[in-house]
Write a structure and sequence with these properties.
Largest sheet: none
Structural class: mainly alpha
Radius of gyration: 13 Å
Distance between the termini: 37 Å
Length: 88
């Protein structure tokens, strides 16, 4: 697995890897044509994030061909982006 060096914090990197490991099997099920909505809801509960955040993480993971990037799979990044947008 390739991990981005965008985030140096080992805890954030470990969290991103954990989330990627939970989401990767869903990618395979989607490729097989299965409905992944209910599975993503369960993974969201397991990760302690909202359903929309789980979908965001999933889309980012798919965009990166299944590679985990701590920068793209952590809540802090999403929160910072929303805060910046809301200031505009």
């Amino acid at each position: 697995m390739i991990l981005s060096n965008e985030v140096e914090n080992p805890e954030e990197r470990a969290l991103a890897v954990e989330r990627a490991n939970a989401l990767r099997p869903i990618m395979e099920l989607e490729e097989a044509g299965q409905d992944i909505g209910p599975l993503l809801l369960e993974v969201a509960k397991m990760m302690g994030v909202s359903r929309s955040t789980a979908w965001d993480f999933y889309r980012r993971l798919k965009t990166n061909d299944g590679r985990a990037s701590p920068y793209s799979l952590n809540d802090a990044v999403r929160s910072m982006a929303h805060a910046a947008w809301n200031r505009m």
